[in-house]
């Protein structure tokens, strides 16, 4: 998925979230046993996770999108363009206002420096690739690390609840987080893709005795994913609000509020200079 934080990274940083669904319980003429429901739900998760892994491995398309987030307490709007070399990130607004001429000049200078700084580009790619590798392994554990049960259905969307699987033995420090996660998952049951994943940490989690990370109980996490092109899914909402740290991830903060919109596919051979030119030509390059 190019140089983009995958849903695996968002889901499995080891955080959790509040969830406010609008799903009704699906009526059944004859209810299967709890064990039958759990087996079927786990199978649905297994197939869905495999599709997510296939997307990470095989979808190498590049995209442009608008990101609204907060940096140092200030709302910031950026245009992000993925390229094979690195992601171009141009700020277009702060506090809901377009940049002043002086701010635009500073942004131009910053980006021109990045475009010619191969070391900075390699560091960005290294950090994102490291997270992708880490979370690929964690995502693959998801069907075994948690147990699932059906909680309702609306159209093609199926809601599941999850809790720790007491029979799961974490093979790494990072995987210990599964033993503290409870929450809910929404799956597009037609395409078998993850739509939403949320929950809460039911107790503290320490990684490497606290040296590699220390996440506090009660933190919240919410991630949404949507189809932005035929068969291509991207994160559209990411909210993280916990107390703690997770040093083994490089690109996600324990306090993050991000909304991504306006996805457009771009050529896979795009250079950073071409990406910058593309952003400048956008007729709607104003804060939403």
How is this fold's topology laid out?
Elements: H1 7-11, H2 34-58, E1 62-71, E2 74-82, E3 87-94, E4 97-98, H3 101-116, H4 118-145, E5 146-154, E6 157-164, E7 181-188, E8 193-201, E9 205-207, E10 213-215, E11 220-229, E12 232-241, E13 244-246, E14 255-266, H5 272-280
Helix pairs in contact: 2-4
Q: Which class best fits the helix and strand makeup?
A: alpha+beta
Report the major sheet: 11 strands, antiparallel
Shape: globular
**Measured distance between first and last alpha carbons:** 25 Å
Estimate the helix proportion, in percent.
25-40%
User: What series of H and E elements makes up the topology?
Assistant: HHEEEEHHEEEEEEEEEEH
How many domains make up the coordinates? 1
Mean pLDDT: 82
Cross-sheet strand order for the largest sheet: 4-3-2-1-14-12-11-8-7-6-5
């Amino acid at each position: 998925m190019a140089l983009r934080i995958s849903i695996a990274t968002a889901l499995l940083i080891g955080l959790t979230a509040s969830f406010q669904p609008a799903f009704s319980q699906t009526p059944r003429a004859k209810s299967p046993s709890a064990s039958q429901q759990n087996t079927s739900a786990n199978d649905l998760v297994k197939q869905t996770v495999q599709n997510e892994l296939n997307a990470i491995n095989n979808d190498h398309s590049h995209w442009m999108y608008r990101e609204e987030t907060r940096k140092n307490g200030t709302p910031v709007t950026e245009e992000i363009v993925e390229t094979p070399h690195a992601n171009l990130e141009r700020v277009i607004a702060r506090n809901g206002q377009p940049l002043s001429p002086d701010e635009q000049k500073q942004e131009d200078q910053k980006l021109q420096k990045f475009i010619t700084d191969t070391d900075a580009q390699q560091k960005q790619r290294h950090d994102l690739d490291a997270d992708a590798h880490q979370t690929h392994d964690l995502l693959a554990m998801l069907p075994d690390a948690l147990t699932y049960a059906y909680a309702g259905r609306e159209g093609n969307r199926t809601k599941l609840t999850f809790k720790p699987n007491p029979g799961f033995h974490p093979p790494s420090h990072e995987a210990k987080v599964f033993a503290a996660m409870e929450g809910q998952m929404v799956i597009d049951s037609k395409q078998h893709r993850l739509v939403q994943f949320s929950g809460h940490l039911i107790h503290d989690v320490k990684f490497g005795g606290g040296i590699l990370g220390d996440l506090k109980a009660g933190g919240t996490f919410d991630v949404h994913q949507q189809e932005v092109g035929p068969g291509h899914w991207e994160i559209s909402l990411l909210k993280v609000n916990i107390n703690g740290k997770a040093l083994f991830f490089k690109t996600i903060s324990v306090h993050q509020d991000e909304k991504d919109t306006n996805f457009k596919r771009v050529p896979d051979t795009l250079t950073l200079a071409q990406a910058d030119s593309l952003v400048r030509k956008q007729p709607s390059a104003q804060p939403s």
